[in-house]
Sequence to fold (262 residues):
Amino acid sequence: MKVKIGIIGGGNMGGAIIGGIHKKYGILLCEQDEKRAQGLKRKYKITVCDLKTAAQEVQAVILAVKPQNFETVLEGLKPHLAKSKPVISIAAGITCLYIEKRLGKQAHVVRAMPNLPVQVGEGITGICTGAAAVDSDLILARRIFGCIGKTVVVEEKWMDAVTAVSGSGPAYVFLFMECFLRAADSLGLDKAVGRELVMQTIKGSLKLLERQKEEAEVLRERVTSKGGTTQAALDVFSKYELDKIFKEALSAAQQRAKALSQ
Ligand SMILES: NC(=O)c1ccc[n+]([C@@H]2O[C@H](COP(=O)([O-])OP(=O)(O)OC[C@H]3O[C@@H](n4cnc5c(N)ncnc54)[C@H](OP(=O)(O)O)[C@@H]3O)[C@@H](O)[C@H]2O)c1
Fold:
């Protein structure tokens, strides 16, 4: 018998989670957009239901609506939710305390911050637990998000940093890719050739980093000969203080996450 999970909100993230876990778990989806709900039902053979059913007939509930819809959803859930049932929220900036205040302080709250690559099973999800959550809640959350990538467990005080690093992280990688592609283009390379060179360089470098288990710094030094082409490029990155740009950018994201959760 499959463990049943209630999912509230079947948008980008809810849909990606369903895609990754529907074979392992029974899914009861509550989604207000009828067309979207029916699309997911057809695609993954899941059950579409109302909020009450998605709260009562499951072992855990995942909240995958936007932060501005939380108030309504929590209010609707409260009368139907057993106190010991884990509630897993993926909303950016919604703290465990916010949920506990609305569901009651005994609520078993888990907070998770997944990122976009969950759509291809390669996400990473930062997870923390609220005051009344128990080990089995955390284990279940790790199992669920483990179906769509890796998981890390942190204390809640680190969730803003997790948001800044991996939650927003895919956008930094896409930006890097855009800059890299435009630069390849500016050298006069054919667009398709430039794209292949850039994509495979990123993929191959990552694989190397994973396989060799050496620090990025060590591998970078190994491919940089004094006075060579790589050194010429790295000198430019250094002149514009890429390191400082990264630190400032991530700090801005962390501050924004902190402000949103006030
Ligand atoms: N996207 C990301 O990369 C990312 C990463 C980490 C965390 N998150 C978090 O994930 C959550 C969902 O984000 P998303 O991008 O998946 O949003 P989304 O695409 O807008 O999905 C939310 C879905 O929930 C539906 N909904 C709203 N209120 C509802 C209600 N009361 N009952 C049932 N369904 C309801 C929405 O319908 P309508 O469209 O009709 O409103 C929509 O289909 C957010 O809290 C966000 O902070 C997102």
The beta strands are 4-8, 26-30, 47-48, 60-63, 87-89, 109-113, 123-129, 149-153. Residues 69 and 92 are 12 Å apart (CA to CA). Residues 8-14, 30-33, 36, 64-67, 69, 72-73, 90-92, 113-116, 167 surround NAP (CB under 6 Å).
